[in-house]
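Action item from last week, closing it out:
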Amino acid sequence: MEFRYLGNSGLKVSAVSYGNWVTHGSQVEAEAATRCVQAALEAGITTFDTADTYANTKAEVILGDALAGQRRESLEIFTKVYFPTGPGGPNDTGLSRKHMMESINGSLKRLKTDYVDLYQAHRYDHETPLEETMQAFADIVRAGKALYIGVSEWTPDQLRAGHALARELRIPFVSNQPQYSALYRVIEPEVVPTCRELGISQVVFSPIAQGVLTGKYKPGQPVPEGSRATDERGSQFIQHMLTDEVLTRVQKLAPLAEAEGLSMAQLAVAWVLQNDNVASAITGGSRPEQIADNAAAAGKKLSAETMAGIDEALGDAVERDGSVVGQASPKSRLT
């Protein structure tokens, strides 16, 4: 396993991390999920990402149980706050001081730990003053409940404003968690340059584009049974990529992966790790062998020819429009 610094900090994380969005507590039952976590540990993964909203807190419970007995100091555990939990009342969501303070306590209890290594704002809260959110983060850090803070899917302007307040409050703002893959590169025009300037790393999700870049979805054929595309929650993030044009282009990656001695999934993970602003690529899976395969992409240096070949193969199927960054943050906490 390769390890990289998280932002402008001394914390190292595994270049391939394990995340349990969509799977734990929903697609994958606890016993199978525990086997996946064990496979991640055996592959050298030390960084685990979750969120309180995943399966309405069940994912945190399963991850906490799966990591029980491990040396806590040898792990980096990340979680997030913003989206609704519990019954979804008016204060059960967002980045208000009330919700954040209650959420960190709930997450620590479910994860069976005294602290998380990274506590992340799961989206930007347009209804709470940023000063309130950052002060709550500072108090959580000073209470020893989180060591570092990060965000997810923030715009460059939001990143700058949050970072300025973090500096005033003297708390380590070290990461942004965006979607990023060879098919989805919207962070490249502005987010990545901004983060390089500020000393913030990317911890990216969906590096395999919800499984599309594995090549398992074939043009003109039905989606495989049990795949992400058949899951009610996961399918909404993948349907727009399941066109014959996109899938035909993805199939052109197979010989490039073979030439590098990699599976197509490994090629996809290795591609995002060629970006030196990416500290870690979050991967998931419903079977232990998927975890081991993904982890093997760490430390792989792709040739310039392969990188150019990926660009040529995917062509105009790649989403590059940086103006869409931030659209994932709801304008209202109740939407």
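Closing note: The domain at 3-210+278-300 is CATH 3.20.20.100 (TIM Barrel).
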